[in-house]
Specification:
Strand content: 15-25%
Shape: elongated
Largest sheet: 7 strands, mixed
Number of domains: 2
Distance between the termini: 56 Å
Structural class: alpha/beta
Oligomer: single chain
CATH architecture of the largest domain: 4-Layer Sandwich
CATH class of the largest domain: Alpha Beta
Strand order of the largest sheet: 5-4-3-2-1-14-15
């Protein structure tokens, strides 16, 4: 078969626009000579639709758009494979299914419902969908075809040491005589996920000795970034066609000749992470109806990286940096922030907070009398910066991007209603050590936009005289190793200490900081997931609890 991989960026809930896009790509695929065009999981609805699935109107309007898609492609000599939210027939309290349609000649010829519903990490499909009890082969262009939806093709017992499900839909369909596997997906990105996918599906192709087509969603939806990176493989598990990463694409492959187009991008994983943040930022801003953003520029590495990502996401004309020097800000902070803004070509404004800090402290002095200065006064400075940014956000209609990294957020080295104020936490899943490496990526793209002094000076919040991050935290190369082991791998303090050859007291102190600051993280702006375990929808710990490591 001549198959087109229709890798598209759907917007959750924008049913008409998503359908329009599917129609346009189907027309392009037909004009290019494809016999079949395959779109991602829930392409018509956008993924993940979450509680929109609970709205009867959402399911009803999906069916209306599916019928429109059938009529719009009736005259095309092409078969369309498309994911959508279907209506459930079962009387179980769940009204919807995660479904795939095969459309040809103006009507839906076949429907496959998803069997394995993931309910872990960022996934919660068992909450919404009724699962299929079995799946069926279908025939597309005289070929017996196994059509699966994402998780249904991710349970190969020869790949996983421990499987999540007893049944393997691909095995069942292959044993029934499938001649090709088509897998439609909405598989979010994290570092090295693209390589893992290819390994999984290569093993599947070799095991069953059938070619396969894997089509993935691309783009950002809330906290998740989808990388696309769709591909086709021959029966030996070799990639014979591949789509771009982090961009919409249409790729043709002929499974008879094992020839296809190759559009590979971002082979370097740090380049891929940077692009994931750009795409996630761009889509969050665009899909939420904003066009302009504000960033508090401190002259530090975190705000510098966030500004560079923002410029790549929405253009320099839509980014404004705000310098907010306070009573303990160094001269180089404003100078470095100004130089960064000039290098990036963005608007830069100064809004000092020193006078405001003095006024607030004076007003509170009668209530603070007899008490020593402590973190309270530091937080007043941070919160004044938050007030300033949110005031400008309201006045200018611009979205504030927060600049805190994962290391700080993990241990609570941040201020609620201060530096945590904003609409999107761009780098909240980026450990501090990775922040530095991604900043080098930004400088390769933008000819050294981030000043070298930003890389070399010691990190500091500058909320008290001569303050450095290491006054409160270990060096970041040590901290980040502890956090990765605890947050992403759930390892115990003793194991972490032994593996990293660190004092167990130090490890316990860091872990206690992580556990105590859950209340802060659950009030933070949504962030973009790029590691295996991000703070957000994929990590669900209680705030009021007494368990301790």
């Amino acid at each position: 078969m001549r198959i087109a991989l229709g890798q598209i960026n759907s917007t959750v809930g924008d049913l008409a626009a998503n359908t329009d896009k599917i129609i346009r790509y189907a027309e392009r695929a037909a004009a290019a000579g494809a016999e079949v065009v395959v779109f991602p999981e829930l392409a018509l609805n956008g993924y993940p639709p979450r509680d929109l699935v609970e709205k009867p109107a959402f399911v009803e309007r999906t069916q209306t758009q599916l019928e429109r898609l059938c009529l719009a492609t009736a005259s095309l000599s092409i078969t369309v494979v498309c994911g959508y939210v279907g209506s459930a027939d079962a009387s179980t309290g769940k009204q919807a299914t995660n479904s795939a349609a095969i459309i040809q000649g103006g009507r839906q010829l076949f429907r496959q419902n998803k069997m394995l519903l993931p309910t872990y990490d960022v996934f919660d499909e068992a909450r919404y969908f009724f699962p299929a009890d079995r799946q069926h082969l279908t025939t597309i262009r005289n070929t017996r075809t196994a059509l699966t939806i994402c998780e249904d093709a991710w349970n190969d017992k020869q790949y996983w040491e421990r499987r999540l499900y007893q049944r393997d839909p691909v095995e069942e369909l292959a044993q029934a005589g499938a001649g090709i596997l088509i897998s439609i997906n909405a598989s979010p990105y994290h570092m090295y996920k693209r390589e893992m996918r290819r390994d999984i599906f290569s093993a599947t192709a070799r095991r069953y000795r059938i070619p396969l087509v894997y089509v993935n969603q691309v783009g950002g939806n809330d906290q998740l970034v989808f990388d696309g990176a769709s591909f086709a493989m021959n029966s030996k598990g070799d990639v014979i066609a591949s789509a771009k990463s982090f961009d919409e694409d249409l790729v043709l492959v002929d499974t008879a000749t094992n020839m296809g187009e190759r559009h590979d991008t971002f082979p370097d994983e740090e380049e891929a992470v940077y692009e994931a943040l750009v795409v996630g930022t761009r889509d969050y801003i665009r899909k939420c109806g904003f066009s302009k953003v504000l960033i508090g520029l401190s002259g530090g590495i975190d705000s510098s990286l966030t500004a560079a990502i923002a410029v790549d996401a929405v253009g320099r004309e839509n980014v404004t940096g705000i310098g907010m020097p306070g009573p303990f800000s160094s001269d180089h902070s404003v100078a470095d922030a100004r130089q960064l803004a000039e290098n990036l070509g963005i608007r830069f404004e100064i809004a000092p907070i020193t006078t405001g800090c003095a006024a607030i402290e004076s007003a509170l002095e009668p209530l603070f009398r007899g008490l020593p200065k402590d973190v309270t006064e530091e937080n007043i400075q941070s919160r004044l910066r938050g007030v300033t940014l949110m005031a400008l956000s309201n006045k200018w209609g611009a979205l504030v991007l927060t600049t805190g990294n994962k290391s700080e957020l993990a241990v609570g080295y941040c201020t609620l209603y201060g530096d945590m104020c904003g609409g999107l936490a761009v780098i909240s899943d980026v450990p501090k050590t990775l922040v530095y490496r991604l900043s080098r990526v930004a400088n390769r793209r933008r000819q050294g936009a981030i000043p070298e002094n930003v890389f070399t000076k010691p990190p500091s919040a500058e909320l008290r005289p001569d303050q450095k991050d290491t006054d409160s935290l270990p060096e970041y190369d040590v901290l980040d190793q502890i956090l990765k082991a605890y947050v992403e791998q759930y390892e115990s303090p003793r194991k972490i200490a032994a593996d990293l050859k660190l004092p167990v007291e130090l490890v316990r102190d860091i872990i206690n900081k992580v556990d105590r600051n859950e209340y802060k993280r659950q009030q933070a702006a949504p962030g973009l997931k790029v590691t295996t375990k991000a703070f957000g929808i994929g990590r669900r710990f209680p705030i009021a609890q007494r368990f301790s490591e």
